[in-house]
Amino acid sequence: MANILILFNASDYAAEPWLAAGHNVLSVDIANESSGLPRWIETTGNHFKVNWDIYVTRRKLHNTPWRMPDFVLAFPPCTDLAVCGNRSAAGKLAADPNYLDKAVDLCTWAAEYAANGLIPYLIENPVSRLATLWRKPDGYFHPSDFGGYLPEDDVHPEYPEYIAPRDAYPKKTGYWVGNGAKLPEKRPVSRPTGFSTQYRMLGGRSAKTKRIRSLTPRGAAIAIYEANKELLT
Length: 233
Hints:
Layout: E1 3-7, H1 16-20, E2 24-29, E3 40-44, E4 47-51, H2 54-60, E5 71-74, H3 89-95, H4 99-116, E6 121-126, H5 130-133, E7 139-141, E8 173-178, H6 207-214, H7 218-228
Parallel strand pairs: 1-2, 1-5, 2-4, 5-6
Antiparallel strand pairs: 3-4, 6-8, 7-8
């Protein structure tokens, strides 16, 4: 079985298709890096979660089976890169003149790490300044573009009041791929035009709303796996 490295992964959704196929998954989450949780949490026989500072991760990966993974997925935070964040850019710049460089570095180091071993990779980030500060994405998608991978009677298992069935909501997102990784194939479902109705309820800075906003759409997770599973055979 293959070793899959998933960076900035705060939920199981991105990992589930790979785990179901029997692959080993290491999920690195920076959200709880100071929480005091154990460094390793084995949730199943082939899924491991770790709470590491991402810069520490660069060093520690060399001492794990994921030193040379077979596939890399990354869902880096977009807080400092989002277009809507331009309104607070002056304050962020005053607090840290290098904040943009650091934000871009979080997004690109996965590609750089994968490049060293010619490892296929896919990086996801909502529409942001990353396209100009790094490079243009290889494709743009909305969660609803992959809703067809979910059953017709789908209901979100955690937040049905916020996330529409079959991920039928808009959120323009860029995907960057390299080293042979493939973009997921669309299986769109209809969705309301304009802004996502549930995302209008997800403003603010609470831990709950941040988590919901960052969840990987389940249909997209399946589509990414389906597009790239042949690379692991």
